[in-house]
Amino acid sequence: MTAPDLERWRLILGEAADACLAGQPMSTTAAGRDAALDWLYGRDEDLDRRDVRRRSGGDGASQLTTMDWLDQVNRLFPKETVERLERDAVERYQIPDVLTDPEVLGRIEPNATLLKAVLRTKHLMNPAVLALARRIVRTVVQDLVDRLAVSVRQSFTGARSRRPSRFRQARNLDMRRTIRANLGNYQPDQRRLLVEDVHFFGRTRRQLEPWQFILLVDQSGSMVDSVIHSAVTAACLWGLPGIRTHLVAFDTEVVDLTADVDDPVELLMKVQLGGGTDIARAVRYGAGLVDNPRRAIVAVVTDFYEGGAPGGLVRAVRGLVEQGTHVLGLAALDEEANPSYDRQTAQLLADAGAHVGAMTPAHLAEFVAEKVGR
């Protein structure tokens, strides 16, 4: 092995692997990386439980502050590694300086992990720190909005028709007709088709009747990902023609956040994560917002762990379904849509007529677009 390969294994395995260096000291860069890794992972209590010797940096004992450590990892590691180290500092070791030191917050790169940590701890922050935390919230949320807005716009632009169009746009390409029109240009020796005549689909313009979209979001501590993406989804749907969006957060209480839907940053800063869960109460509140039952979609984003007996929740959902309202029970609303939920309660709601499953924000936008475009 080359010296860099040996140093890499030494960094992975820690002090116990000193012998692999055959008595040679690590390079200055490797020693700095070792000290930075030790500052973070050396505090793992599991090392003591397993009687594993703690790591020690190759340049001797280091008294790094959080700010020193942040500077060091950004200088010594690639961006992907820095993001992982910062995530472990926040989630795994809950190092308080990361979220309470204004200097650290001012330097750290905004990311989804920090956003979730800010939302969980914002009630503990003093005004100066909270102002810096908003930078993280705004940066990450704007990135989510920009990405989801593309999917939302595509969902609401109208269904493709079979009629040809002179408007040339890549997503409306009529591939089958284009290939058929250019078959005479096929070059067998090069196995290529020269395309000279390109054809496109037209799109029918949706005539939208007024619809209501009522999004009820569980704000218990385990639902932080869904709370974030619900706020972003509601912001992207806000103001679309023919649809009126409501956003309601709930635990054992119900808070109508519709007035802040157009500003997802302000909305998220008002959410209070944690507490119990009264889904039935939220559904009853949502039912009270419905103007025209057959022109309403009520989406409940929750893990379905109801705080009380599920009978009241089932009755509330069944009442909405029987009056013609589309009811969605979403076990997850984030980019991965990895659900974790009470399947028994979810099945009861499905039996009552709700559509129950897991959706990404983009899929939810497609569902809403399909319903309001009919």
TrEMBL record:
Ranges for domain VWFA: 210-369
Pfam families xrefs: VWA_CoxE
Protein name per its UniProtKB record: VWA domain containing CoxE-like protein
UniProt organism field: Asanoa ishikariensis
Taxonomic placement: Bacteria, Bacillati, Actinomycetota, Actinomycetes, Micromonosporales
